[in-house]
Amino acid sequence: MITVLVKDLFFKSKIDGIANVFKKKVEFVSDVYTIKNPTLILVDLEEFGLEGLQKILEDYPNVKIIGFLSHKRVDLIQRAKMLPITVLPRSMFTEKLPDILSKS
Fold it and tell me: How far apart are CA 29 and CA 31, in angstroms?
């Protein structure tokens, strides 16, 4: 299950649209504590931060997590890179989204 933590309606529709093209099922959640058996997690780090990711990593140590955020958030980028997740600027995430979803 591809789990997405994002509140922005633009990104929700973009992710959902691309997932539909590749016939991938996507579950949008608004709370990290409601995630169940993910295979891939996409998360807007500016909206959800890093604290909840610690819980996810404890519960699902082998899940791939891709976090995206503004390239201007250098402080958050540096902290996120200390976790075993992939961190992408929002523009690069948008560019790579079809590839990410097609391979998951």
Answer: 6
Q: Is the pLDDT of residue 71 over 80?
A: no
Residue matched to tokens 């807007």: 44
Q: What is the pLDDT of residues 85-97, one digit of tens each?
A: 999 999 999 999 9
How many CB atoms neighbour CB 72 within 10 A? 11
Task: Encode pLDDT of 46-65 as tens digits.
Answer: 888 787 788 888 889 999 99
DSSP string, 14-38: HHHHHHHHTT--EEEES-GGG--S-
The alpha carbon of 10 is separated from its chain's Cα centroid by a whole number of angstroms, namely: 15
Tokens found for residue 63? 């899940």
Contacts of residue 36, defined as CB under 8 A and 6 or more positions apart, other chains included, come to 1
DSSP code string of 36-53? -S-SEEEEEHHHHTTHHH
Length of the chain: 104
Query: What's the whole-model pTM score?
Result: 0.90
